[in-house]
Amino acid sequence: MKEKEVNNRRKFAILGLFLLFLVSCDFRSSDYYFSKAEQLEAEDKYAEAIILLDKAIVKNPQNIYALLNRGADKSMLKDYRGAIDDYTKVIEIDSMNTLAFFNRGLIKQRKEDYHSAIEDFNRAIKTKGSENFWMDWSTNYFSKRGEFDVPMEDIRLERGYARYNSDSLRVAMEDFHFCIERNYQPGLSYYMAGLVYINFNMIEEGCKALMQARIFGNLDAEEMIDEYCKK
Fold first, then answer.
1. What is the residue extent of each domain of the chain?
2. pTM for the full predicted model
Protein backbone atom coordinates (compact mmCIF):
# COMPACT_ATOMS: atom_id res chain seq x y z
CA MET A 1 0.00 0.00 0.00
CA LYS A 2 1.35 3.41 -0.93
CA GLU A 3 2.32 5.78 1.86
CA LYS A 4 -0.15 8.44 0.61
CA GLU A 5 -3.07 5.98 0.83
CA VAL A 6 -2.08 5.00 4.39
CA ASN A 7 -1.97 8.64 5.45
CA ASN A 8 -5.41 9.30 3.91
CA ARG A 9 -6.91 6.33 5.77
CA ARG A 10 -5.43 7.57 9.02
CA LYS A 11 -6.93 11.02 8.40
CA PHE A 12 -10.38 9.53 7.76
CA ALA A 13 -10.08 7.37 10.89
CA ILE A 14 -9.15 10.38 13.03
CA LEU A 15 -11.99 12.41 11.47
CA GLY A 16 -14.44 9.59 12.21
CA LEU A 17 -13.35 9.41 15.83
CA PHE A 18 -13.70 13.18 16.15
CA LEU A 19 -17.22 13.13 14.71
CA LEU A 20 -18.14 10.28 17.05
CA PHE A 21 -16.84 12.36 19.96
CA LEU A 22 -18.99 15.33 18.91
CA VAL A 23 -22.11 13.17 18.63
CA SER A 24 -21.56 11.45 21.97
CA CYS A 25 -20.80 14.68 23.84
CA ASP A 26 -23.62 16.96 24.96
CA PHE A 27 -22.55 20.58 25.00
CA ARG A 28 -25.98 21.94 25.96
CA SER A 29 -26.25 23.63 29.33
CA SER A 30 -28.34 22.81 32.37
CA ASP A 31 -30.31 26.01 31.77
CA TYR A 32 -31.07 24.89 28.21
CA TYR A 33 -32.69 21.65 29.38
CA PHE A 34 -34.53 23.49 32.15
CA SER A 35 -35.98 25.95 29.65
CA LYS A 36 -37.11 23.17 27.31
CA ALA A 37 -38.68 21.32 30.24
CA GLU A 38 -40.68 24.41 31.16
CA GLN A 39 -42.18 24.43 27.67
CA LEU A 40 -43.33 20.84 28.13
CA GLU A 41 -44.74 21.61 31.58
CA ALA A 42 -46.83 24.38 30.06
CA GLU A 43 -48.43 21.65 27.94
CA ASP A 44 -48.93 19.36 30.97
CA LYS A 45 -46.34 16.93 29.60
CA TYR A 46 -44.81 16.18 32.97
CA ALA A 47 -43.23 12.81 32.20
CA GLU A 48 -41.45 14.27 29.15
CA ALA A 49 -40.38 17.32 31.17
CA ILE A 50 -38.83 15.10 33.84
CA ILE A 51 -36.57 13.49 31.23
CA LEU A 52 -35.15 16.91 30.35
CA LEU A 53 -34.93 17.98 33.99
CA ASP A 54 -32.94 14.81 34.69
CA LYS A 55 -30.42 16.02 32.10
CA ALA A 56 -30.42 19.54 33.57
CA ILE A 57 -29.63 18.14 37.01
CA VAL A 58 -26.90 15.83 35.69
CA LYS A 59 -25.33 18.90 34.09
CA ASN A 60 -25.67 20.90 37.30
CA PRO A 61 -26.67 19.02 40.49
CA GLN A 62 -27.00 22.41 42.24
CA ASN A 63 -29.73 23.64 39.87
CA ILE A 64 -32.42 24.44 42.43
CA TYR A 65 -34.92 25.51 39.77
CA ALA A 66 -34.68 22.16 38.02
CA LEU A 67 -34.98 20.24 41.29
CA LEU A 68 -38.04 22.23 42.35
CA ASN A 69 -39.73 21.75 39.00
CA ARG A 70 -38.91 18.06 38.89
CA GLY A 71 -40.38 17.68 42.36
CA ALA A 72 -43.56 19.42 41.22
CA ASP A 73 -43.76 17.28 38.06
CA LYS A 74 -43.30 14.09 40.05
CA SER A 75 -46.04 15.24 42.40
CA MET A 76 -48.38 15.75 39.45
CA LEU A 77 -47.64 12.16 38.42
CA LYS A 78 -48.23 10.99 42.03
CA ASP A 79 -44.60 9.97 42.49
CA TYR A 80 -44.68 11.38 45.99
CA ARG A 81 -41.54 9.63 47.20
CA GLY A 82 -39.58 11.05 44.28
CA ALA A 83 -41.03 14.52 44.86
CA ILE A 84 -40.04 14.46 48.53
CA ASP A 85 -36.51 13.39 47.55
CA ASP A 86 -36.17 16.35 45.17
CA TYR A 87 -37.42 18.88 47.70
CA THR A 88 -35.06 17.40 50.28
CA LYS A 89 -32.15 17.90 47.85
CA VAL A 90 -33.16 21.55 47.45
CA ILE A 91 -33.17 21.97 51.24
CA GLU A 92 -29.70 20.39 51.45
CA ILE A 93 -28.48 23.03 48.99
CA ASP A 94 -30.51 25.94 50.40
CA SER A 95 -31.63 25.45 54.01
CA MET A 96 -33.71 28.66 53.87
CA ASN A 97 -35.80 27.69 50.84
CA THR A 98 -39.37 28.36 51.97
CA LEU A 99 -40.93 26.88 48.85
CA ALA A 100 -39.13 23.54 49.23
CA PHE A 101 -40.28 23.14 52.85
CA PHE A 102 -43.83 24.16 51.94
CA ASN A 103 -44.08 21.84 48.93
CA ARG A 104 -42.59 18.94 50.87
CA GLY A 105 -45.15 19.57 53.60
CA LEU A 106 -47.96 19.49 51.04
CA ILE A 107 -46.77 16.12 49.72
CA LYS A 108 -46.57 14.67 53.22
CA GLN A 109 -50.07 15.98 53.87
CA ARG A 110 -51.34 14.17 50.77
CA LYS A 111 -49.74 11.02 52.14
CA GLU A 112 -51.60 11.68 55.42
CA ASP A 113 -48.29 12.03 57.26
CA TYR A 114 -49.66 15.02 59.12
CA HIS A 115 -47.10 15.28 61.91
CA SER A 116 -44.19 15.42 59.44
CA ALA A 117 -46.15 17.88 57.31
CA ILE A 118 -46.59 20.17 60.33
CA GLU A 119 -42.84 20.04 60.96
CA ASP A 120 -42.16 21.18 57.39
CA PHE A 121 -44.74 23.99 57.62
CA ASN A 122 -43.11 25.10 60.89
CA ARG A 123 -39.71 25.13 59.19
CA ALA A 124 -41.16 27.10 56.27
CA ILE A 125 -42.41 29.70 58.76
CA LYS A 126 -38.94 29.92 60.38
CA THR A 127 -37.38 30.77 57.00
CA LYS A 128 -39.60 33.87 57.02
CA GLY A 129 -38.88 34.82 60.64
CA SER A 130 -41.46 33.66 63.17
CA GLU A 131 -45.22 33.52 63.64
CA ASN A 132 -45.15 36.87 65.44
CA PHE A 133 -42.76 38.69 63.13
CA TRP A 134 -42.09 37.61 59.57
CA MET A 135 -41.16 38.93 56.18
CA ASP A 136 -42.93 38.05 52.97
CA TRP A 137 -39.79 38.06 50.86
CA SER A 138 -41.72 38.34 47.61
CA THR A 139 -42.50 41.95 48.55
CA ASN A 140 -38.86 42.74 49.36
CA TYR A 141 -37.23 43.79 46.11
CA PHE A 142 -33.79 43.84 47.75
CA SER A 143 -33.84 40.10 48.54
CA LYS A 144 -33.24 37.24 46.13
CA ARG A 145 -35.28 34.99 48.40
CA GLY A 146 -38.52 36.34 46.97
CA GLU A 147 -38.55 33.87 44.09
CA PHE A 148 -38.76 30.98 46.57
CA ASP A 149 -41.16 32.66 48.98
CA VAL A 150 -44.61 31.48 50.08
CA PRO A 151 -47.10 33.88 51.71
CA MET A 152 -47.58 33.29 55.44
CA GLU A 153 -51.34 32.86 54.91
CA ASP A 154 -50.75 29.91 52.59
CA ILE A 155 -48.46 28.20 55.08
CA ARG A 156 -50.74 28.70 58.06
CA LEU A 157 -53.88 27.57 56.26
CA GLU A 158 -52.18 24.34 55.21
CA ARG A 159 -50.68 23.88 58.66
CA GLY A 160 -54.11 24.43 60.19
CA TYR A 161 -55.52 21.71 57.96
CA ALA A 162 -52.72 19.32 58.98
CA ARG A 163 -53.22 20.17 62.63
CA TYR A 164 -56.96 19.56 62.29
CA ASN A 165 -56.35 16.13 60.79
CA SER A 166 -53.88 15.26 63.54
CA ASP A 167 -56.48 16.19 66.20
CA SER A 168 -54.56 19.28 67.34
CA LEU A 169 -57.75 21.31 67.21
CA ARG A 170 -56.91 24.27 69.43
CA VAL A 171 -53.76 25.20 67.54
CA ALA A 172 -55.52 24.47 64.25
CA MET A 173 -58.08 27.12 65.20
CA GLU A 174 -55.26 29.63 65.70
CA ASP A 175 -54.20 29.12 62.08
CA PHE A 176 -57.76 29.40 60.73
CA HIS A 177 -58.43 32.59 62.70
CA PHE A 178 -55.15 34.02 61.41
CA CYS A 179 -56.43 33.51 57.86
CA ILE A 180 -59.94 34.79 58.68
CA GLU A 181 -58.49 38.00 60.14
CA ARG A 182 -56.64 38.56 56.87
CA ASN A 183 -59.63 37.63 54.72
CA TYR A 184 -57.56 34.85 53.16
CA GLN A 185 -59.64 32.18 51.43
CA PRO A 186 -62.51 33.07 53.77
CA GLY A 187 -64.83 30.35 52.51
CA LEU A 188 -62.38 27.60 53.44
CA SER A 189 -61.05 29.34 56.55
CA TYR A 190 -64.51 29.88 58.04
CA TYR A 191 -65.53 26.34 57.09
CA MET A 192 -62.56 24.78 58.86
CA ALA A 193 -63.09 27.03 61.90
CA GLY A 194 -66.71 25.88 61.95
CA LEU A 195 -65.62 22.24 61.98
CA VAL A 196 -63.34 22.91 64.95
CA TYR A 197 -66.18 24.56 66.87
CA ILE A 198 -68.48 21.62 66.08
CA ASN A 199 -65.81 19.22 67.37
CA PHE A 200 -65.74 21.17 70.64
CA ASN A 201 -69.57 20.99 70.74
CA MET A 202 -69.71 24.78 70.40
CA ILE A 203 -72.65 24.50 68.02
CA GLU A 204 -73.72 28.15 67.98
CA GLU A 205 -70.22 29.40 67.17
CA GLY A 206 -69.79 26.59 64.65
CA CYS A 207 -73.00 27.47 62.86
CA LYS A 208 -72.03 31.15 62.65
CA ALA A 209 -68.70 30.20 61.08
CA LEU A 210 -70.33 27.75 58.67
CA MET A 211 -72.87 30.34 57.56
CA GLN A 212 -70.03 32.76 56.88
CA ALA A 213 -68.35 30.03 54.86
CA ARG A 214 -71.54 29.62 52.83
CA ILE A 215 -71.70 33.37 52.19
CA PHE A 216 -68.20 33.14 50.74
CA GLY A 217 -69.23 30.30 48.44
CA ASN A 218 -68.09 27.19 50.30
CA LEU A 219 -70.47 24.48 49.07
CA ASP A 220 -69.41 21.95 51.72
CA ALA A 221 -70.73 24.26 54.42
CA GLU A 222 -74.33 23.69 53.31
CA GLU A 223 -74.29 20.03 54.27
CA MET A 224 -72.88 20.81 57.72
CA ILE A 225 -75.47 23.55 58.23
CA ASP A 226 -78.25 21.10 57.37
CA GLU A 227 -76.86 18.61 59.88
CA TYR A 228 -76.07 20.88 62.83
CA CYS A 229 -77.79 24.22 62.40
CA LYS A 230 -81.38 23.52 61.35
CA LYS A 231 -82.58 21.58 64.38
1. 185-231
2. 0.85
